[in-house]
Give the backbone structure.
Amino acid sequence: GAVVSQHPSRVICKSGTSVKIECRSLDFQATTMFWYRQFPKKSLMLMATSNEGSKATYEQGVEKDKFLINHASLTLSTLTVTSAHPEDSSFYICSARDLMVRGQETQYFGPGTRLLVL
Amino acid sequence: KQEVTQIPAALSVPEGENLVLNCSFTDSAIYNLQWFRQDPGKGLTSLLLIQSSQREQTSGRLNASLDKSSGRSTLYIAASQPGDSATYLCAEGGSYIPTFGRGTSLIVHP
């Protein structure tokens, strides 16, 4: 079945540095990918929708200059947390839509990336 | 805007019990409904996906049902085991953007 991978799975960085997280669809093309953030004991909150070849659409309250999203190809989207601070520590999960069958789009989720900013 | 609610938020049962997790959604015009499992500090593992045209899906001891008219989905776990302990999330696929519930934290004790 379709698989979505994320890299890295876990990252620890110093405050002020930037961190890039990759999301790849391994055996299907994804024109749209989604980035989520999960706070402890909370549900997944949609951060932004990443569209291949165009600018990402950010949800209200998400700083686009803080969380840079690039969807350069049909199989890769990246999320860069710029000038990370401890409050950015969280679990980030991406998902990708498989458009193989029109009207039967399926979401596949990556395994997540645990970010800890010291 | 679609809202997804999961009840109960937490559940603790003895091993061997059959249990039901509930998921409700406010907009019945859903695309699909998906159940996930999340272990502590881990990503999501897809358990079952029900398309809007389907009423249920089964995988091993798991059975998920979908009733669009009432805005509900249930995940039935038969003969629960300690290894089933995890957080279970449901997500409504939506026409474009999936919406997640907050999850049900399940503990199955020996």
About this structure: Chain B touches chain A through 22 residues (CB under 8 Å). The CA atoms of residues 4 and 107 of chain B lie 22 Å apart.
